[in-house]
Write a structure and sequence with these properties.
CATH topology of the largest domain: TIM Barrel
Number of strands: 17
Strand content: 5-15%
Structural class: alpha/beta
Distance between the termini: 58 Å
Shape: globular
CATH superfamily of the largest domain: Glycoside hydrolase, family 3, N-terminal domain
CATH class of the largest domain: Alpha Beta
CATH architecture of the largest domain: Alpha-Beta Barrel
Strand order of the largest sheet: 2-3-4-5-6-8-10
Largest sheet: 7 strands, parallel
Radius of gyration: 22 Å
Helix content: 25-40%
Number of helices: 15
């Protein structure tokens, strides 16, 4: 039986060596006959070359996925970045959401990625949530549902498959499922708010839904993570909500599914038995395939495996059909970047005073996005964009009372970071700088709700620390808010 079709290993770009460190794993996965891959990072041209190679070498059509919540440029250098979904949701401009999805899908297809892991359908219900925050369209379930629908329809219009995540909702957690198994104790009635955007996604014919590595006592008293819970995956998602598409697990490298001593092989068997079809980011691809094969007829009914393989084959065939119908696509166009940049500038919010820049300024960077195995985005774009606008920028480590000052504060949502807000050290550094230069403009590259921690006269909230948000903040400071 082709159990390897259930597996979707990760391929990570290495900044020094490109794809070479992943070559052995790629060869082994293709030899086994996996259903596809999930790509993390890479220069856009190199991504296109890799995906073409993967397809040419595979015995069956592949689903090639990537986390593109903030546009294809979130992962692939040279493609177009977009603002965080929270920033777009705050505008409540459904046309902008649909256009953002179409742009994401078009550029993904141009690079050979036919399965977009977006939109996030979680509702931002908990300010202390360390992993959702700016990734969600907002804290109103109806608004989230509205924009999830537009995003799915835009993605389909541009010819890519999409995936709503993380079922049944990751918005109430106060822990990061990358690091632990979060437990949600909300009642069944309360969880209806979380389910609203997923109901909307299903009504919009979303291709796939990703499970959360989160336990929900009201849905499954055993406190199993949703990914491993038949009560949540089969009873709720399949039977109650009547979802007939592909169900994919969140990444299997996360402690939310591997905690408690369960091995990766056992977790994958339980996930498929619970009703999941696609297994995302297994580390031991050959070992997992062997474990699944051995479990058939024992812990894993044969018809359950055949059903999962059938759904993956159907989705891969549909993706191939969409590619043929839509034809070649383009990525990295100047006009797309300009549209995204103006969209980003529209999302910026002056939280206090009149944020500004002088023609000659000091720039003090306070980066609070440390922690976890992967580095944050480069912080160079903000100074570069200011200089391109003829602002003389002197980067400094300390405030000078005699000079105009911009304080760039980076505090975004990041996996394994473990907290959503500003650390005590960051708050103290900001306070020290403001004590020397009270008139400084603070640019917060994080959720606007963190602005209350800043106590500054001038604050501009820029939602996230990606390159495009840095560029948008520089443009806002030089040109002001865009006309509405």
């Amino acid at each position: 039986m082709r159990v390897a079709r259930l597996l979707f290993p990760g391929i990570r770009w290495d900044r020094e060596h490109g794809w070479e460190p992943a070559r052995q794993g790629i060869d082994e996965a293709l030899a086994l006959g996996v259903g596809g891959f999930c790509l993390f990072g890479g220069e856009a041209a190199a991504v296109g070359e890799l995906t073409a190679e993967l397809r040419a070498r595979s015995r069956a059509p592949l689903l090639i996925a990537s986390d593109l919540e903030r546009g294809a440029g979130q992962q692939f250098t040279g493609a177009t970045q977009l603002p965080p979904l929270a920033a777009i949701g705050a505008l409540d401009d459904v046309d902008a959401t649909r256009t953002a999805a179409m742009l994401t899908a078009r550029e993904a297809r141009a690079l050979g990625v036919n399965w977009v892991f977006a939109p996030v359908a979680d509702v931002d219900l908990e300010a202390d949530n360390p992993i959702v925050g700016t990734r969600s369209f907002g804290n109103d379930p109806e608004l989230v549902a509205r924009h999830v629908t537009e995003w799915i329809e835009g993605c389909h219009e541009a010819g890519a498959l999409c995936c709503a995540k993380h079922f049944p909702g990751h918005g109430r957690t106060v822990e990061d499922s990358h690091a632990v198994l979060p437990l949600v104790e909300a009642s069944r009635d309360e969880l209806e708010a979380d389910l609203g955007p997923f109901r909307a996604a299903i009504a919009a014919n979303v291709d796939a839904i990703m499970t959360a590595h989160v336990a929900y006592l009201a849905l499954d008293p055993t406190a199993a993570p949703a990914t491993l819970s038949p009560a949540i995956v089969t009873n709720l998602l399949r039977r109650t909500l009547q979802f007939g598409g592909l169900i994919v697990t969140d990444a299997l490298i996360m402690e939310g599914v591997l905690g408690g001593g369960i091995t990766e092989c056992r977790a994958t068997v339980h996930a498929v038995a619970a009703g999941c079809d696609a297994l995302l980011y297994p580390q031991d691809v050959a070992g997992v395939a062997k474990a699944l094969e051995a479990a058939i007829g024992k812990d894993l009914p044969e018809n359950r495996v055949l059903e999962a393989i059938g759904r993956i084959d159907t989705a891969a065939a549909r993706a191939a059909e969409e590619e043929a119908e839509n034809g070649p696509a383009e990525w990295g166009r100047d006009e797309d970047h300009e549209w995204a940049l103006e969209l980003a500038r529209r999302t910026l919010i002056a939280l206090a005073g009149t944020p500004r820049t002088a023609r000659s300024v000091d720039l003090l960077t306070i980066d609070d996005d440390v922690g976890g195995p992967y580095p944050p985005p480069s912080r160079a774009a903000f100074a570069e964009a200011l200089r391109a606008a003829n602002v003389e920028v002197r980067e400094t480590d300390a405030a000078d009372a005699a000079r105009d000052l911009i304080i760039a504060v980076y505090s975004d949502i990041r996996a394994w970071k473990g907290r959503p807000g500003l650390s005590a050290a960051a708050r103290q550094s900001i306070a020290d700088a403001l004590a020397k230069q009270p008139a400084a403009t603070v640019v917060l590259f994080g959720h606007p709700r963190l602005g209350g921690d800043l106590r500054a006269e001038r604050v501009l909230a820029a939602w996230g620390g990606e390159r495009i948000m840095q560029q948008a903040a520089a443009r806002w400071l030089v040109l002001g808010a865009p006309a509405t």
